[in-house]
């Protein structure tokens, strides 16, 4: 083994593990912005939410923020996988992790998303079903148009899944 290989070794650091972030959540802002592009909207839930990050060595590949909405409902407020690692099963893994961790305290996982082909098929593949719609959510709450796949998002579509 040469000196460079030794320097790159991180004894005690398990590869590809999911860790809970209790302090310094804002350090992950670039990751959070992939899923929610307006910082003051992220600020509405970040501190009260519980955050987990999938790390590979010292790189964050995916993150999720969940919040207790009462009556056994846990809401996914933010879920993001870095572009180079999308479509490799990490998003599904984060949802599985959240379901396993919280199913003794919550019966339903809820998530709101724009009506976009970039997210709706993902949640459906992960076993979520349409719950309800908040009309004009993106028009009323964001200070600029949110465009996904060339389409301006208007309504928030909520999906739910029993856990
Ligand atoms: C949406 C997102 C979290 C999905 O994570 P991912 O790791 O890419 O998804 P996975 O690889 O776990 O996909 C799980 C399944 O959904 C499917 N899927 C994922 N994205 C899809 C898409 N845009 N269209 C169709 N199917 C999709 C996958 O093909 C896979 O299906 P399979 O199990 O039949 O193979 C990720 O693309 C992302 O971070 N996007 C940007 C941020 C964002 O929009 N977050 C959601 C905010 S609500």
Structure summarized in a few sentences:
With 163 residues, the chain is an alpha+beta fold. It contains 6 helices and 9 strands, in the order αβααβββαβαβαβββ.
Task: Give your account of this protein's structure.
By secondary structure, the chain is an alpha+beta fold. Helices cover 26% and strands 34% of the residues. The strands form 2 sheets. It has a 7-stranded mixed β-sheet, sandwiched between helices. The protein has a two-stranded antiparallel sheet with strand order 7-8. It is globular, with a radius of gyration of 17 Å. 24% of the residues are buried. Bound molecules: coenzyme A (COA). Coenzyme A binds next to helix 2, strand 4, helix 4 and helix 5.
Write the layout of secondary structure elements.
Elements: H1 3-8, E1 17-21, H2 29-35, H3 39-43, E2 50-56, E3 59-68, E4 73-81, H4 90-102, E5 108-114, H5 120-125, E6 129-134, H6 137-141, E7 147-148, E8 151-152, E9 156-162
Parallel strand pairs: 4-5
Antiparallel strand pairs: 1-2, 2-3, 3-4, 5-9, 6-9, 7-8
